[in-house]
């Protein structure tokens, strides 16, 4: 399999690309963030392109390792007929950057273009709030060889875009993919709106094309649409050739040229890319590459780790954030940023564990209560009765003896060779002590007591 992507993501600007309408289209009533320009009314003249959008596009192109086009850049009119675009054309720039690379996949080009409106065929209505929002378009070479590789690439691309802090997330993604199998023709799939969708569409398409080829049938060169709800692709129309779009430079927009100084200034202010951050974390904090990968999977998480590592041993912090914090985030299906957890809360929690104010087990319980919780870990510990570690040998022994006495079956099982019964008994001791005992030390005591009981 060979495939290449065209990925569109919205840029984070306050106003649209060719007018001053705001871009917060999700919060606004339909067709309220509009003007004659972004409604594409005949004769409405676009303003000069949004400078912030141009700067963001350059920044992202550079972060993707692209060379910057030093020649003249035009906004082209790309013609097509669809209700989301009353003018009949979408404005898209000639390449701003080219010849980049990410995850071993070559980036052919990066463009800047305008988003069309949102057409809802089932209702027959169009909302133009989205029309004119700047998009970054990233075009790859057909270097991707499996759905898994595609998924990895898209994840890494989203990470770079997040790190740029200039692009919106996967929620605004729209991608087209060109896919072909050896001996078959190239098929374009449109309407891919998520990384998972891309993976499923490719899986389906490979199977469909393979079946045709195996039966000696031809794979038609066509454009297909991905129906996310059914996880299948269906024919859309015969593939357009570039000439069908009748590209012409938009006479209402001035050509652009970037001067050397301007590019240099952007280069100087580029943020770290995710791969740069992984490398630095390994060197600076002496943590493993795997830990660094997990911690840099989200910019907010990476930033929080650096805050925490100022006060807590970085290896200890990395271990807790990678294992326990990530466990809690994925259980709740939220990102770190969404969780509202602060570095301050994490520092306090880890300090409590280090100072033996709570057990490790209690720490694991408390961290589960941190998402969407403004309370400090100490307050949470108090509420849950988890404060304190039982050091008193007598008390531990008492709990152990009670657990043995109350669970003769488990003790018997152990004597009959079922070693796992000991873990059950440890669990009972934990319950009796509200998890305030050190598990390793308690296990030693428990084991010797159970063996004595034979
Ligand atoms: Zn407008």
TrEMBL record:
Keywords: ATP-binding, Ligase, Nucleotide-binding, Protein biosynthesis, Transferase. InterPro entries: Asn/Gln-tRNA_amidoTrfase_suB/E, Asn/Gln-tRNA_Trfase_suB/E_cat, Asn/Gln_amidotransferase, Asn/Gln_tRNA_amidoTrase-B-like, GatB, GatB_C_1, GatB_Yqey_C_2, Gln-tRNA_amidoTrfase_suB_CS. The keyword Transferase applies. Its EC number is 6.3.5.-. GO terms for biological process: glutaminyl-tRNAGln biosynthesis via transamidation; translation. It comes from the Archaea. GO terms for molecular function: asparaginyl-tRNA synthase (glutamine-hydrolyzing) activity; ATP binding; glutaminyl-tRNA synthase (glutamine-hydrolyzing) activity; transferase activity. Belongs to the GatB/GatE family. GatB subfamily. It holds the Pfam family GatB_N. This is Aspartyl/glutamyl-tRNA(Asn/Gln) amidotransferase subunit B. It catalyses: L-aspartyl-tRNA(Asn) + L-glutamine + ATP + H2O = L-asparaginyl-tRNA(Asn) + L-glutamate + ADP + phosphate + 2 H(+); L-glutamyl-tRNA(Gln) + L-glutamine + ATP + H2O = L-glutaminyl-tRNA(Gln) + L-glutamate + ADP + phosphate + H(+). Heterotrimer of A, B and C subunits. Allows the formation of correctly charged Asn-tRNA(Asn) or Gln-tRNA(Gln) through the transamidation of misacylated Asp-tRNA(Asn) or Glu-tRNA(Gln) in organisms which lack either or both of asparaginyl-tRNA or glutaminyl-tRNA synthetases. The reaction takes place in the presence of glutamine and ATP through an activated phospho-Asp-tRNA(Asn) or phospho-Glu-tRNA(Gln). Residues 303-450 form the Asn/Gln amidotransferase domain. It is an enzyme of class 6 (ligase).
């Amino acid at each position: 399999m060979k495939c290449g992507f065209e990925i569109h993501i919205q840029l984070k600007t306050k106003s649209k690309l060719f007018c001053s309408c705001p871009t917060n289209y999700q919060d606004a009533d339909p067709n309220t963030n509009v003007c004659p320009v972004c409604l594409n009314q005949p004769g409405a003249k676009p303003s000069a392109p949004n400078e912030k959008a141009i700067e963001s596009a350059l920044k992202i192109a550079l972060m993707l390792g692209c060379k910057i086009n030093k020649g003249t850049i035009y906004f082209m009119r790309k013609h097509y007929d669809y209700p989301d675009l009353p003018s009949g054309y979408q404005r898209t720039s000639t390449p701003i950057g080219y010849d980049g690379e990410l995850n071993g996949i070559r980036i052919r080009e990066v463009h800047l273009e305008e988003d069309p409106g949102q057409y809802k065929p089932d209702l027959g209505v169009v909302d133009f709030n989205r029309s004119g929002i700047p998009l970054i378009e990233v075009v790859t070479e057909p270097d991707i060889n499996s759905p898994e590789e595609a998924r990895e690439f898209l994840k890494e691309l989203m990470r770079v875009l997040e790190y740029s802090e200039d692009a919106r997330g996967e929620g605004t993604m729209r991608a087209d993919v060109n896919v072909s199998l050896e001996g078959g023709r190239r098929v374009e799939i449109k309407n891919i709106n998520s990384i998972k969708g891309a993976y499923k569409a490719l899986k389906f398409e490979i199977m469909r094309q393979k079946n045709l080829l195996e039966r000696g049938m031809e794979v038609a060169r066509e454009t297909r649409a991905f129906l996310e709800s059914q996880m299948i692709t269906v024919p859309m129309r015969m593939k357009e050739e570039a000439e069908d779009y009748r590209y012409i430079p938009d006479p209402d927009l001035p050509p652009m040229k970037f001067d050397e100084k301007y590019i240099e200034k952007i280069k100087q202010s580029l943020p770290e890319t995710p791969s740069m951050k992984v490398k630095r974390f390994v060197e600076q904090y002496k943590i493993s590459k795997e830990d660094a990968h997990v911690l840099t999977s989200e910019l907010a998480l990476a930033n929080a780790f650096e805050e925490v590592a100022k006060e807590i041993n970085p290896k200890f912090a990395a271990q807790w954030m990678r294992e326990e914090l990530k466990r809690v985030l994925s259980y709740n299906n939220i990102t770190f940023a969404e969780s509202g957890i602060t570095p301050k809360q994490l520092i306090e929690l880890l300090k409590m564990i280090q100072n033996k104010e709570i057990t490790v087990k209690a720490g694991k319980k408390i961290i589960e209560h941190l998402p969407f919780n403004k309370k400090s870990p100490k307050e949470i510990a108090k509420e849950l009765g988890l404060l304190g570690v039982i050091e008193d040998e007598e008390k531990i022994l008492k709990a152990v003896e009670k657990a043995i006495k109350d669970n003769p079956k488990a003790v018997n099982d152990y004597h009959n060779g079922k070693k796992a019964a000991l873990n059950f008994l440890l669990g009972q001791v934990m319950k009796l002590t509200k998890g305030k005992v050190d598990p390793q030390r308690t296990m030693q005591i428990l084991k010797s007591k159970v063996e004595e009981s034979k």
